[in-house]
Amino acid sequence: MPKKFIFRLTLLNALVVTTFILVTSWAIYNTACFLVEGMVMDVGRQDQFKSALFEYLLLFSLFAVVVGSTLHFYLTTKLIRPLQKLIKSTQRIKEGFYPEAIHVHASDEMGQLIDHFNQLVEQIKMNDQQRRMIVSDLSHEFRTPLSNLNGYLNAMKNGVIEGEPKLYESLLNESKRLTNLVEQMDQLKEWDVESGKTLAEKEFTNIAIVVEQSVEMFRWLLNKQDIRCVIQADSRYVEINTFGIYQVISNLMGNAIRYYKGKNPVTIKGECLNHVYKVSITGEGQHIPQSEQEKIFDRFYRIDNSRSRKQGGSGLGLAISKEIVERHNGKAGLISNGNNHTFWFTIPIKEE
């Protein structure tokens, strides 16, 4: 808060207090003079009384104005001191720095304002860190396929290598992987809270049918890779965005097939549990260390970078699935014991 503002505020307060004191003193003076005139007293003593009264009231008024204005200036300065810190903090943000949290002990409006400001600064800092992380991850994701494409195309241009169907197919696969990555990024953005996408498009749907239809889309791939599949889904109408849940199950099924290693069938189970409908997909795959399981749903995360790139993974599928489930007020997770993994998600059950 600029000192000029404090000075103007104090001056205005002093003007109001002075006016009030002068009016009060004038009323007291005239009232006292009127009462004295009605008493049996000579003119000289009356004049002396009026003069003494006027001097006392004048001194008292000046004392009250000076002390009141000084006290008001001190208390106002102390009261708005957090606001001065707030101004300095906003200036730091304007300069591109993140200020330290402002500590206040008051729980009034000023304390609430400072508390909200501290939370805002922390949120901005987290968003900036996430933005930097995403930019770094994106550059990492795009660098390898672009380098491959540029290297081979440049070599073909200079005549170092000659084009052949197998090379063209490899370059096409790299191009498809870039396209797939961009599409998945768009899907993730679509389901982000900041995008403004609401769940007004939800409708009551038999989720067992959604599960069966989603898995059926992979039937040809399952048969091709000779992977058995077992579906056990309880029939239940749940309020969902059908497209979103299709996408979640498809992402989980795609991962189960892409990283499948074993002989046991992939099991898809849907069951009603304590006011939620739980869908789980269990299958054998590559080992997931215990320390890595909590990160499995992070954006661009891979357990084995080289293997994921070779198989076409982008590290976005599980992040998209988690975002969609959370937008349904549900939860997603992983249960793993060695090479046997169960990816699950829950959707709240609401009555129609």
Automatic annotation (TrEMBL):
Residues 137-351 form the Histidine kinase domain. SUPFAM superfamilies: ATPase domain of HSP90 chaperone/DNA topoisomerase II/histidine kinase, HAMP domain-like, Homodimeric domain of signal transducing histidine kinase. It catalyses: ATP + protein L-histidine = ADP + protein N-phospho-L-histidine. It is a multi-pass membrane protein. Residues 77-129 form the HAMP domain. Keywords: ATP-binding, Cell membrane, Kinase, Membrane, Nucleotide-binding, Phosphoprotein, Transferase, Transmembrane, Transmembrane helix, Two-component regulatory system. CDD domains: HAMP, HisKA. Its EC number is 2.7.13.3. InterPro entries: HAMP_dom (IPR003660), HATPase_C_sf (IPR036890), HATPase_dom (IPR003594), His_kinase_dom (IPR005467), HisK_dim/P_dom (IPR003661), HisK_dim/P_sf (IPR036097), HssS/ArlS-like (IPR050398), Sig_transdc_His_kin-like_C (IPR004358). It is an enzyme of class 2 (transferase). This is histidine kinase.
